[in-house]
Amino acid sequence: MSRLDFDALRDARAQHPERIAEILAARTRRELIRGDGRLFIVAADHRARGALGVRDNDNAMANRYDLLDGLATALSRPGVDGVLGTADIIDDLALLGLLDDKLVVGSMNRGGLRGASFEMDDRYTAYSIDRIKRDRLDFAKNLLRINLTDPGSVATIEATARAVSEAAAAGLPIMLEPFMSAWVDGRVQNNLTTDAVILSIAIAEGLGDSSAYSWLKLPVVPEMDRVMAATTLPTLLLGGDPVGNQDEAFESWRNALELPGVRGLVVGRSLLYPHDGNIEKAIDTAAALVHEA
Fold it and tell me: What are the domain boundaries of the chain?
């Protein structure tokens, strides 16, 4: 991307904000499932929850232009089916002309800010189902962290059930990202044991008055065969926090992608900010895992 693109982006935001709605209304859309039936979606909704860190860099995602440049690179690579973001990210990508023939996933609840005393209250502060339909997006996504000892979780559960019902009524696929979570030394920690993930699935897939349009977004944990035996919902694997060896992460994704019911990957930071800085290589490797699985 050139500096001129960013100049045009800033000018459009200041002088012609109506262009965002016009571009989204005219955007070329694609079918949700086509070809091999697999999806590879790049995630970029972390900033809105105050999560800017990648590995040992607490502000890796602070530079907006670096993030947009990385997303542009990712979306240009073959095998990348779409992008997940809050409205600010999606609006920027629309103005930059990067969303045609891509699946666009609207992230809904970002209110549980990282490190906040109210982090378990994952309020719906971003897209609503109504606005996702307004902007002709293709998918909704929410985060459902369930803490059995924190009253803040019940409001999130109730709001998520309402979002699932609204999505089903609108005929809009919705991606549920459930975790069993707990406070550990003043921070929220997700339980990534196999049994905890299975429990989170049981709770999440029962929300709403219809599961017809519900999908799952799940972490890769030990005994993924047991995890996938717990649901009939179409499932996408999440990349999670980028820690450890990237080759090991690729191998764990490869194995999980072979399981029945797994439809692809939703990965963000670990590919947009790879160890060696080579975004094209990281994206291409992940795309091959998804579409050649």
Answer: 3-291
Other CB atoms within a 10 A radius of the CB of residue 209 amount to: 12
pLDDT for 151: 86
Compute CA distances 250 → 36, 242, 285, 286, whole Å.
20, 11, 8, 7
Burial of residue 121, with CB atoms counted within 10 A of its CB: 0-12 exposed, 13-18 middle, 19 or more buried: buried
100: CB partners within 8 A, 6+ apart: 27, 28
Question: Tokens 């929850």 sit at which residue?
Answer: 49
* Strand ranges inside the chain, DSSP E: 39-43, 82-85, 103-107, 139-146, 174-184, 187-190, 214-219, 235-238, 262-267
Q: Given a cut of 70, is residue 243 above it in pLDDT?
A: no
pTM: 0.95
**With contact defined as beta carbons under 8 Å apart, do 257 and 265 qualify?**
yes
Domain 3-291 fold is TIM Barrel (3.20.20)
- Radius of gyration of the CA atoms of the chain, in A: 18
Calculate mean pLDDT across residues 19-32: 97
Query: Any idea which residue has 């790049």 for tokens?
Result: 42
State the CB neighbour count (10 A cutoff) for residue 151. 9
The CA distance from 73 to 76, in Å, is 5
Does the pLDDT at position 233 exceed 70? Answer: yes
Max mean pLDDT range (114-118, 124-128, 269-273): 124-128
* Residue partners of 2: CB distance under 8 A and separation at least 6: none
The two tokens of residue 155 are 């409001």
- Phi and psi angles of residue 218, each rounded to the nearest 5 degrees, phi first: -125, 150
Alpha carbon distance 15, 173 (integer Å): 34
Burial of 250 (0-12, 13-18, 19+ CB in 10 A): middle
d(CA 72, CA 31): 21
> For residue 244, what pLDDT is reported?
65
